[in-house]
Amino acid sequence: MNYMNKIVLIDGLNRSGKNALVGPVTSLKNSESIEMNYILEHIIQGVSLKLIKLDFAKSFFLKFFDEIFYNKFIARNANFRKTDSSSVLNFSFPKIYKSRLNKKDGIDIFSELKKTKNFFPFMTHEVMANLDILDKIKIDYKMIAVFRSPFDIVYSWHKKKIIKNFGKKNFTLSFFKKKKVYPWYVFNNYSQWLKLNNLEKSAFIINDLLTKSITQYKKSKFKKKILIISYEKYVESTNSELKKISKFLNTSFSIKTKDEIKKTKLPIKINLKEKNKRKNYLKIKLKPASFAKLNKLEESYKKNIYNLV
Q1: DSSP string covering the chain, please?
Q2: What is the CATH number of the domain that holds 298?
Q3: 104-140 b/e (C-beta count within 10 Å ≥ 16 → b)
Q4: pLDDT of residue 168
Q5: Structural Rg of the chain based on CA atoms
Q6: Does residue 169 fall inside a structural domain?
Q7: Is residue 236 part of a domain?
Q8: Per the structure, how many domains does the chain have?
Q9: How far apart are CA 78 and CA 67, in angstroms?
Q10: pLDDT at 1 over 60
Q11: 134-138-144-149 Cα dihedral, nearest 10 degrees
């Protein structure tokens, strides 16, 4: 199957603000509903850690996307849980999936998929940090890469107790050794990471993932496939940023897009006073070296998103 312009990844670090894009982006013309499938990112992570062979990943993804696209077109596995972001009931055009429930299973679906102009959006986590693996697998994709203030991400991880919930309480790929749990981010340096307190662990991971993401993007030969978005700019100037996104995806606003923007309660004004409070909290709680690394990233972020745009 020709996947040109059909796979769209909305990617970013956990707590980077991707959810603010889901409703408006999937309301654009020719969008399918959002797919939240951790298998995609777990396979890429497995290859990056040399636990999964590249050839296996290539073959796997050929069938993976075939199955996802096929199931979308017959509404198989459609999520009707109203409280879920991925629910078709929260999609701008839910009747599409209700009508697809009556479609006959069979080879004709593949013919429809070849002809469709629809794109299939996936929400992913930290794929940018392994961009070289994604490109080696030769998946044809477009990516909307969402970046956010490093201080705000670390603070959010701390308040949401992300570190404490690794293992059985969330879907981050994690490993166990000597009754200790650690996430894939620190697979090669977990013993050093385990010695840190939870806030320091968050800062350690965010610093590492952002540094890798920046490096990977700068090295990539396929930058035209990627649109870099600042969360702060997006929430404050939603209409103009969404127009930029729609142009990147070769689509336009639908009759539902403005409603979705309102439903997401955008645009909003960033509260600078609260941002400073979070920064000062981290300055007090983190070790000076950890804070200095984050501060360096923060200053770079303010300069055209790490000078990536």
Answers
A1: ---TTTEEEEEESTTSSTHHHHHHHHTSTTB---B--HHHHHHHHHHHTTSS-HHHHHHHHHHHHHHHHHHHHTTTT----TTSTT-GGGSS-THHHHHHTTSPPSTHHHHHHHH---BEEEEEESGGGGHHHHHHHT---EEEEEE--HHHHHHHHHHTTTTTTTTTSS-S-EEEETTEEEEGGGTTSHHHHHTS-HHHHHHHHHHHHHHHHHHHHHH-S-GGGEEEEEHHHHHHSHHHHHHHHHHHTT----TTHHHHHHHTT------HHHHHHHHHHHHHHS-HHHHHHHHHHHHHHHTHHHHT-
A2: 3.40.50
A3: eeeeebeeebeeeebbbbbbbbbbbbbbbbbbebebe
A4: 79
A5: 20
A6: yes
A7: yes
A8: 1
A9: 13
A10: no
A11: 20
Domain-embedded: residue 2: no
Q: Is residue 1 part of a domain?
A: no
Question: Which tens digits make up the pLDDT trace of 198-231?
Answer: 999 999 999 999 999 999 999 999 999 999 999 9
- Give tens-digit pLDDT for 32-69: 999 998 999 999 999 999 999 999 999 999 999 999 99
User: What is this structure's pTM?
Assistant: 0.96
Amino acid at 285: K
Q: Which residues contact 288 (CB under 8 A, 6 or more apart)?
A: none
Residue labelled with tokens 């996104």? 245
Q: Tokens 């200790």 sit at which residue?
A: 180
* Beta carbons of 250 and 28 less than 8 angstroms apart: no
Cα separation, 96 vs 100, whole angstroms: 6
Distance CA 17, CA 231 (A): 6
Question: Beta strands 180-183 and 174-177: pairing type?
Answer: antiparallel
At position 159, the amino acid (one-letter code) is: K
Question: Using CA atoms, how far apart are residues 256 and 27, in angstroms rounded to an integer?
Answer: 6
Residues 269/308/152/11 CA torsion (nearest 10 deg): 100
Q: Which domain holds residue 86?
A: 7-307
- Note the residue count of the chain: 309
